[in-house]
């Protein structure tokens, strides 16, 4: 279906290898459709015992979604094609989350945005010394989607809120400490782990046999400050708490937040709060699709991508420019239900792509 995916059966495993190294394997809609089709085919194949998701070559697992495509949609077709991308990508995320066979995602390298969306819902997500994990969406006027609301809201100590707002990058040891990786393996052990899964070993046992103790997690040293300063679901409270702290750490995090979209920081906090009320992952994804449908065409997304990715001037002009300027009515409109025929639903209730 696309040269950007290498899809194959090997032994007892179905293997999905991302193959777009020039873009650090950022997901396109054809890649989403190819993975979805393969997973649906393998779901009923008794010879396929496990699924492996990895990348074929290059320095990263998956840098995210096709941001240029989404920006083009926002600017040129009122978000129609962008919403289709989100819709089908979220169906893939949900399919992985609910898949009846064990899925193993190898987060070896850069794992951001859409890369989190195809690794975090796997039963096993493996970090290495190469892992660089982040949800950096508030820096481009988006929000931590692809299930980010579900995963981040359920981390202890307000770590999820910290990651959602700041876009901080975690290494593999920090992912394991925070609960964002089930196993920590050295890069050199990955080939052996995959071979054991291919030869029919139960994935959890295969990974545990090769796992090692990770180095000390640097974020652990800041855990108390994160829990204190990111305790509130009100963005202005987070900023005020950091402003009242004269430590270098607080100053750095405050400076980071001042580069982010105030609108999407408020969206992210509301998203993580509301996710805890969702009955299941499908309800979370329906909520995130409502948010994505609105945020895609608001000014901050196109402007954020322009500043960070297109022009790379690092000087986005956010609208509204301040947290105080983000009206409660705007946030409510972003989270409001869609018309019934536009709501997102899991793939099992809709036609396949």
Characterise the protein shown here.
There is one protein chain. The chain is of the alpha/beta class and 353 residues long. It is 46% helix and 11% strand. It has 16 helices and 10 strands. The strands form 2 sheets. Strands 1-2-3-5-7-10 form a 6-stranded mixed sheet, sandwiched between helices. A 4-stranded mixed sheet has the order 4-6-8-9. Helix 1 links the parallel strand 2 and strand 3. The termini are close together.
The share of residues in helices is: 40-55%
Query: Can you tell me the CATH class?
Result: Alpha Beta
Strand order of the largest sheet: 1-2-3-5-7-10
What is the CATH superfamily classification? 2-enoyl-CoA Hydratase, Chain A, domain 1
CATH topology: 2-enoyl-CoA Hydratase, Chain A, domain 1
Shape: globular
Compute the average pLDDT: 96
Query: Beta-strand level of the residues, as a percent range?
Result: 5-15%
N- to C-terminal separation?
Answer: 12 Å
| Helix count, DSSP H or I runs of 4 or more residues | 16
Question: SSE order, as H and E?
Answer: EEHEEHHEEHEEHHEHEHHHHHHHHH
Low-confidence stretches: 349-353
> Would you identify the CATH architecture?
Alpha-Beta Complex
Radius of gyration: 20 Å
Structural class: alpha/beta
Total number of beta strands: 10
Question: Main beta sheet, described?
Answer: 6 strands, mixed
Number of individual domains: 1
């Amino acid at each position: 279906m696309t040269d950007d995916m290498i899809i194959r059966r090997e032994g007892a495993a179905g293997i999905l290898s991302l193959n777009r190294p020039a873009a650090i394997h950022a997901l396109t809609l054809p890649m989403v459709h190819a993975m979805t089709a393969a997973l649906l085919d393998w779901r009923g194949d008794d010879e396929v015992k496990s699924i492996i998701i990895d990348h074929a070559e290059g320095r990263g697992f998956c840098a995210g979604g096709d941001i240029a495509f989404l920006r083009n949609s926002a600017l040129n077709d009122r978000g129609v094609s962008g919403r289709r991308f989100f819709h089908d990508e979220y169906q893939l995320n949900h399919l992985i989350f609910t898949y009846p066979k064990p899925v193993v995602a190898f987060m070896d390298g850069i794992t951001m945005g859409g890369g989190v969306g195809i690794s975090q819902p796997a039963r096993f997500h493996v970090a290495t010394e190469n892992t660089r994990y982040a949800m950096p969406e508030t820096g481009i006027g988006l929000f931590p989607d692809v299930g980010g609301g579900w995963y981040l809201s359920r981390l202890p100590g307000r770590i999820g809120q910290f990651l959602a707002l700041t876009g901080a990058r975690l290494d593999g040891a920090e992912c394991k400490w925070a609960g964002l990786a089930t196993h920590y393996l050295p890069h050199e052990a990955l080939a052996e782990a995959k071979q054991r899964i291919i030869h029919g070993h139960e994935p959890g046992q295969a990974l545990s046999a090769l796992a090692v103790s990770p180095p000390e997690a640097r974020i652990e040293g800041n855990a108390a400050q994160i829990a204190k300063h990111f305790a509130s679901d009100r963005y202005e409270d987070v900023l005020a708490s950091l402003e009242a702290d004269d430590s270098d750490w607080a100053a750095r995090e405050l400076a980071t937040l001042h580069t982010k979209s105030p609108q999407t920081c408020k969206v992210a906090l509301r998203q993580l709060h509301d996710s805890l009320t969702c009955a299941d992952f499908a309800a979370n994804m329906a909520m995130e699709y409502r948010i994505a449908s609105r945020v895609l065409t608001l000014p901050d997304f196109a402007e954020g991508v322009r500043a960070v990715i297109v022009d790379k001037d690092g000087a986005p002009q956010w609208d509204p420019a301040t947290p105080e300027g983000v009206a409660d009515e705007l946030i409510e409109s972003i989270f409001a239900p869609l018309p019934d025929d536009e709501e997102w639903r899991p793939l099992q209730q809709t036609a396949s792509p």
